[in-house]
Design brief:
The chain is of the alpha/beta class. It contains 14 helices and 17 strands.
């Protein structure tokens, strides 16, 4: 055999004797080319500074794109959205030339917004790797580095020590369920909170508490639903939940494989319980040898710590945790006690090389650049959101009539959420009214979604990695215009 090309040097040696950069990405000529691309990116995105309407010359071609999209999918998408592949932080340009504030970011995936140079640089570096997709049989150093960051952060306040990486939050949840079932010798039942969301696979659709997501599916998963915390009841809500949990365990002794908990409910309404509520339930599970699995697919990274369970001081009770969305790759973390036997966790794909590079860069920035803590960037962004929301509610009370929850009681506040998970409840929290508002907001220049199952809330997942607190004034100006159009 002949030796390889002598002009390709080995990558720089990192802390563990390896480098996350592909060999080609370390060459001076390649680094220069990457810097040139990033310079062009910055020049191009510099013109994207505010909301603007569509370019009339592109309306016809845009309509053709949407028609093709709808024909291929079999139905229209919620929004007439086709991106142009360029943006500037919280602003995104569509293929029709319009620019909008993106306050949902792929339902929380793109927390560094659009065209962030740091993320683009990581993606460019990944394109120079030898493979596009990596797996668990054969992988590069990328999978190790992202797993090390996650386990290092999780193990600071919990017993979580191991990490299995996969390509979607749904698959991370499937792996977590398998781990819990193996630990409990195939216990057939699952405990979950009402209004939870778990993913879109056949199994996860059955666990998630939204009837429309499992319509027509064969029901073969046994789920016992627990009431989530109701702030209108205060401590009484904890007493009710504890009673329900004890009843379930007594009714089905040793039949539960896990209690799956969103410590902050996402799609269920950005509901935030007090620590005492979750701790009481977790202690009962621990005494009954029922694994506690925390789903942080949406809450991960968005509170005052990287893990929401750490923000709530619950790490000692966690047996399994799943993370995703802003990580780009997704993962299931577990304790040594729940480390499964060989063969249970596997998969051809773990994720793409670009997802590893971009996800690692995102995690490093979050970890190292002042996002967390009571005065961190996430806390400051939430403070700015609340200030703008409170101002709108005070000035325009006609948009915020009383909101009644499922028990017939008024909710305590039309402003809610935690950290980078923000909600606002205009128009009485009525589903049809909010869906109509979302469409008007899109036309005016803000992209958002709803959360909750009655009442419904306006859901904002702003790109907290790049959004500036002052930008909320522009966002709320658009929201107010949209509300005016609803009159």
């Amino acid at each position: 055999m002949t030796a390889g090309p002598s002009h390709i040097e080995a990558p720089a040696i990192g802390a563990h004797g390896l480098s996350h950069l592909p060999v080609l990405a370390t060459l001076p000529a390649v680094r220069s080319a990457i810097e040139s691309i990033l310079a062009e990116l910055r020049r191009t995105q510099a013109s994207i500074t505010e909301v603007r309407p569509a370019d009339p010359s592109k309306v016809q071609s845009y309509a053709a794109w949407l028609k093709r999209n709808n024909e291929l999918r079999g139905r229209a998408t919620m929004y007439p959205y086709v991106g142009a592949g360029i943006g500037n932080g919280a602003l995104v340009q569509l293929a029709d030339g319009s620019v909008k504030w993106d306050m949902i970011n792929g339902i929380g995936v793109n927390m560094f917004g659009h065209s962030d140079p740091r993320m683009v640089e990581a993606a460019l570096e990944s394109a120079l790797s030898d493979v596009c997709m990596q797996g668990h049989l054969q992988h590069n150093v990328d999978i190790l580095e992202i797993a090390e960051i996650l386990t290092a952060q999780a193990s600071r306040t919990s017993r979580l020590r191991h990490c299995f990486v996969t390509n979607s939050g749904c698959m991370a949840n499937e792996n977590a369920l398998k781990i819990c079932q193996q630990k409990t010798h195939g216990a057939p039942r699952i405990i979950a909170f009402a209004d939870c969301f778990m993913g879109r696979s056949t199994t996860m659709s059955q666990i998630g508490d939204t009837a429309a997501y499992r319509q027509g599916l064969v029901q073969n998963i046994l789920v016992d639903y627990m009431p989530f915390y109701d702030p209108t009841l205060g401590p009484r809500s904890t007493e009710i939940a504890v009673w329900h949990l004890k009843q379930m365990i007594e009714r089905y002794p040793k039949q539960h494989s896990c209690f799956i908990m969103e410590v902050v409910q996402g799609e269920g309404g950005f509901n935030v319980p007090p620590r005492e509520f979750l701790e009481a339930l977790m202690r009962i599970c621990r005494d009954a040898s029922i694994p506690v699995w925390v789903d942080e697919i949406q809450s991960f990274g968005r509170t005052e710590n990287m893990f929401a369970f750490e923000t709530m001081g619950l790490g000692e009770f966690i047996d399994v945790a799943t993370v995703g969305k802003l990580t780009q790759v997704c993962a299931c973390l577990f304790t040594e006690d729940l480390n499964p036997g060989p063969g249970l966790l596997a998969g051809t794909f773990s994720s793409s090389t670009s997802a590893y590079h971009v996800g690692r860069r995102a995690l490093e920035i979050l970890r190292d650049e002042g996002y967390y803590g009571a005065d961190g960037r996430i806390a400051q962004l939430n403070k700015a959101f609340r200030a703008c929301a409170e101002d709108l509610v005070r000035r325009r009370p006609e948009f915020f009539p009383p909101v009644i929850n499922g028990f017939g009681r008024p909710i305590q506040s039309v402003i809610g959420g935690i950290g980078g998970m923000m909600r606002l409840t205009p128009l009485g929290g009525k589903k049809d009214a909010l869906n109509a508002l979302l469409k008007v907001m899109f036309e005016e220049g803000v992209i958002a979604l709803t959360c909750g199952h009655g009442p419904y809330h306006l859901r904002l997942l702003p790109p907290f990695g790049v959004m500036q607190p002052a930008q909320f004034k522009s966002v709320f100006a658009v929201i107010e215009c949209a509300l005016d159009r609803m009159k």
